[in-house]
């Protein structure tokens, strides 16, 4: 019989109920629970329960039943039910790694019945093997005990059923007999699965790459063989010797959702050999050496010892801004009082009148001038005034032409919404020069303060990359901000966007719509642009395409519509780091003015970066509609790798020097496919920073 020690252990834990009395009972149990698996506990009405204690008791009851049902679903090899329970319950709620009364875990049953799909689903959820099986002998002995005990129980019940006269007790014993016969067959199948299993083969592939100057990344794939038992963990080993003696370190990976591992804390410039082996219930299989056989932790900056471009810049700018504020506060508090008392008093008085004048409200119509509108949205709703109008305030009613430099200045102000009062004071002090530019910008700051005061919101969001202009002489500057939480405001309210668009009565003709009508018509496009401009790239190394076009007052950059805060790009690989050896190769290629690699070359076929660049360049040229033949005249920017944090980096692909920036009137022979737009360079730089 099962050892008394194991029985005592299971009784002490008292965590798992014994299996149902029959296979039919097992099926009924987890099928009847199928409706309960979909229970959303947050949907319980507190008022429908006596109290929190009863609610928690009911929840525990569901968990207790689902825990038992998980074992039954695994034993009956019901993959759909297993996946459903893993989806609706956490591993802790299922007690996924607590043995049942037979000393088994769900993963033990799955791997010993050789049910690979269920075993993989359990592994993805964090399932472990039973800690009681410390050796092959202990597992074999335990299985033999379970089989022997089940067989003995079947024989006892069979004798009782044969010898006893038909009655109620006999009927109950027949049910028990069927249940134990089913369990006897299950244990025999598990025992046979264990005995016929063998150790796993080596991982099918192990790829080694340089992650940084002190780390290597190992990516591996499961063994190709399907004849051995399911692999439940992997071991990564590393050494400075190709014989792996001595061994410098090892790591066991039992979370198999992603088969990769980063070896940290290595010495820069030292070669490391890496190998990976797989484990199943029969033990560790043979190791698989990595490709390449070794790697040297390094970073491209080590090539010439340069420091990161932005190191200390943020701190220096903060310090500089603090100094500027200190100087201006001194000027505002003292110099105006001494030198320009009348001008200062008049300026403050004028600004106060502007804020409290009855006309300092949201506008309903536009009358040939420069205006500011703020778009706040949440899901499919937008903030409007109580008159169902988008919030609009006037900047200047005599300003008939918005200079691009003033607009770009305002986009920079959008990074300092909390500093508007201070900026107004600074511009007020400088108005003695009577500069038209300063007058316009001061009015912009007044309009911003007015919008902030009327809405009760400081942060007005991101400025849309181009103002809206109509034929009536109106110019509308648009800011966009997504509201993440449920907020209520005094002077505005939420309405569905579709209701606003369908309910507005236009006062203009379709041939000459006003700026407000144009805003409503294009509102969805502007919201989509705003959402896309905040998306981030997944970690990796990218190849970007730099293409500019110039106008009289600005330079614009080509970007994809789906990610307008990033250059046109394709992903080269998931590892963002460029090693010193890779950078040396790129420098060598640039020094001899070799064309970018578009065709395979035999002598370079062993260079992984060369192969990755070939694929990326072909994909990028197709994306921007440039014949691959023309790419031979392109060049890789070899001065630096553009690092955006620690997880994203870019190599730049440049057209010939004469074609990097298309001048006004110059013919551009290569027109990208749809899905691209051009942004003012300053707008692109701000979006990139965000």
UniProtKB/TrEMBL annotation:
Coiled-coil region(s)? none
Q: Which residues form the Fibronectin type-III domain?
A: 202-299
Gene3D superfamilies membership: Ankyrin repeat-containing domain, Immunoglobulins
Query: Organism's domain of life?
Result: Eukaryota
Example GO CC term: the record gives: spindle
> Its GO biological process terms?
establishment of mitotic spindle orientation; regulation of establishment of bipolar cell polarity
Give me the ranges of the annotated region Disordered.
1-25
Q: What is this protein called?
A: ANKF1 protein
Q: Which organism is it from?
A: Calcarius ornatus (Chestnut-collared longspur)
